[in-house]
Every structure is written in C-alpha cells, then in structure tokens.
Amino acid sequence: FYRINHYATAGVYTFYTSADAGSNLYINNLQVVNNDGVHPALQDSGTITLYPGTYPIEADAVAKTAPKVEF
C-alpha cells in the first residue's frame, strides 16, 4: 500500500499500473485502475477528470517478484 498527495490542474489524466499479480490505483478513494488478479505482467490504465486541488493517490500491489510502484 502506497499513498501520496498530488496537486492537479484541471484536465483529464490517465494513470497506469503494471503488475504480475495484481494492482489497483485509487484517487480520492475512487478506483481508477483495476489491474487485479494473478496474471502475467500486465499494464492497465484508467482515466479521470480532475479539477484544481490536492488529491490523495493510493496504490496497492501484489507481485510474484518485488512490487514496484512509481508516481
């Protein structure tokens, strides 16, 4: 589980996760990327419209190898 705060300007943002055994990404408690489940390494994405302000971004990851989360 990882968490940061991100200041956004208005716009549509695309976020990506990549995992070999599941990952999820949440912004302001809303699931944006659902890359869950055991599978080969797979990248998934999701888009969200953000308005000016600060948003919490949370990611969880499960990996067969050491998970890697980049913000």
Helix content: under 10%
Count of alpha/pi helices: 0
Span between termini: 13 Å
Helix and strand string, N-terminal first?
A: EEEEEE
Regions with little confidence, pLDDT below 50 for 5+ residues: none
Strands of the largest sheet, in order across it? 1-6-3-4
Indicate the mean pLDDT.
85
The proportion of strand residues reads over 45%
| Main sheet overview | 4 strands, antiparallel
Shape: elongated
Structural class: mainly beta
Q: Measured on Cα atoms, how large is the radius of gyration?
A: 12 Å
> Based on DSSP secondary structure assignment, what is the total number of beta strands?
6
Overview of this protein structure:
- This protein has strands at 2-8, 11-19, 23-27, 30-35, 42-50, 53-61.
- The chain is mainly beta and 71 residues long.
- The mean pLDDT is 85.
Features of the shown structure:
71 residues; mainly beta; 4-stranded antiparallel β-sheet; two-stranded antiparallel ribbon; 0% helix; elongated
Secondary structure layout plus pairing:
Layout: E1 2-8, E2 11-19, E3 23-27, E4 30-35, E5 42-50, E6 53-61
Antiparallel strand pairs: 1-6, 2-5, 3-4, 3-6
